[in-house]
Amino acid sequence: MTTDLIIFLGLGFVALATAISMLASRNAIYSALFLVMNFITVAVLYLLLNAAFIALVQVTVYAGAIMVLFLFVIMLLGAEHVEASPGLPWQGPVAVLLGLILAGEFGLLLFGREGTLAQDLQTAVEGFGSPASVGLELFRNYLIPFEITSVLLLVAMVGAIVLTRRERKESR
Amino acid sequence: MDIPHLVEWTIESIVIVVGLIAGFAYLTLFERKILARIQVRIGPNRAGPWGLLQPVADGIKLIFKEELIPNRADKLLFVLAPVITVVPALIVLAVVPLGPDMMIFGHNVTLGIAGDVNVGVLYIMAVSSIAVYGIAIAGWSSSNKYALMGGLRATAQMISYELALGLAFVGPILLANSMNLMDIVNAQRGLLGWYIWLQPLGFIIFLLAGIAEVNRDPFDMPEAEQELTAGYHAEYSGMKFALMFMAEYDKMIAVSMIAATLFLGGFWGPFVEQIPLLGPVYLLIKTIFLLFVMIWMRATLVRFRYDRLMAFGWKVLLPLALVNVVVTAVIVLVGG
What is the span of the domain harbouring residue B17? Predict the structure, then answer.
């Protein structure tokens, strides 16, 4: 238990540090790389929770596919140095408000319902987090949401292709 | 977490890393010798008998070369990039089983670090998907337009071919009904049980996508010498250059070993059940054969044009891989 706690504290520190560095960094490439580190750290946190499948999918999809595309676009456009934009005037107060709501809810769950959370965490089913159990759960109990998600992703993909095609025609 | 296991893992990790470093050194010699034979030359034969000390000489030469860092380069990332490139190449083999279980000093020892983990194939996918960062960062941080072009090409190429590579994994997973590489190997006992017979298309797709993933001929657009002057590692010299090279050759070894594990029966061969230590030897022989095929392809084929490369990846390899997955799934479901 104590080794888990030490690992968790170390990982939590790295995750927070990389997240803050991502926001604070002036160079877009560094921001992207800090985000990659953050994703990988979160993946290790999943491993700590016995969810190897989710951890490796997190690395493959987020760190490996999505962030590579981000990096690719930043490098392709040469958009490393972003000018500090004035931003929208209402953005600041709204962000503070939303952050406060989130922190409040988090505190309520953590301290108000301490008992229930601890109870839920205690038992892990045999084979929990293995690819087979995740797959069975997805295709038995969550088949319709899964299919809807796949259709949404397909629509997004087709949409991206249609949008780039139209742009090319106009430029001719 | 007991002491004998820790010792076992430590020894195995050291063996794999040292083996990969030595493998890199001698793979360069192997490649130069074979290329020379194919092109009717003699090849390196001055340093030591049959040129066997050539890699040592190359290494010593590279250590004494000046380490240049371009003035306008991003220094931190420029220095980090070779490290980021080489680490995935060294860690990807952790899930490949190197041999069957055996008894040493009364302990049941499994050859290979984590061959028995139930997400082995996903681990390979995850590591290979982050392998692109080192090359992309190297290209960008050099602040050289050729290097940047090489980095961009490498990124685009690797994310395109990763899809076909991932789908080629699905065939053996479906047949063995497991993502555990040990299970996949154990399902292929005997020459006729090799998945290359059941998955010929999958094997070819895996090999082609794997060669593209490690940026080797005929898919070496990212470092096309004639147009990009070596691409992403144009600005690297000395040991940093050696690390970049080591990453490429170690990835070749990794791809060959994974292909041998997934499609060529892994460590199984005659008499492995009686003498477990033969397992790693068979795996090595199969790996060397696949490495020979890769070098052979380099000597035979010319480089793709960039648009052809993309068209081949997306319009030929990916649909074929999808068809392969669907057909395999239907056959496994119907045939049991």
Answer: 3-335
Mean pLDDT of all residues in A34-55: 87
**Residue owning tokens 């600041």:** A92
The pLDDT tens digits of the residues spanning A73-97 come to 888 887 667 666 666 778 888 989 9
Task: Please provide residue B113's backbone torsions phi and psi, each rounded to the nearest 5 degrees.
Answer: -70, -55
Phi, then psi, of B86 in degrees rounded to 5: -85, -25
User: Which tokens is B48 given?
Assistant: 């030591």
Q: What is the overall mean pLDDT for chain B?
A: 83
CA distance B229 to chain A (A): 19
Total domains in the fold of chain A: 1
Q: What is the DSSP string of B45-58?
A: -SSSGGGTTHHHHH
Task: For residues A61 and A68, give the distance between their C-alpha atoms in angstroms, rounded to a whole number.
Answer: 10
Terminal Cα distance for chain B, rounded: 39
ipTM above 0.90, yes or no: no
Handedness of CA B285, B287, B292, B293 (dihedral sign): positive
**Residue A69: which domain range?**
1-82
Name the helix (H) or strand (E) containing B120.
Answer: helix B120-130
Cβ of residue A76 closer than 8 Å to a chain B Cβ = yes
Nearest to B122 among A53, A68, A72 (CB): A53
The answer to whether B129 contacts A59, with C-beta atoms less than 8 Å apart, is yes
Residue in chain A lying closest to B155 (CA): A72
A77, part of any domain: yes
Chain B residues closer than 8 Å to A52 by CB:
117-119
Average pLDDT over every residue of B283-306? 87
Out of A126-130, B15-19, B302-306, the most confident range is B15-19
Chain B residue numbers touching A130 (CB-CB < 8 A): 118-119
CB-based contact (8 Å) between A37 and chain B? Answer: no
- Of residues B255, B250, B89, B267, the one with CA closest to residue B184: B267
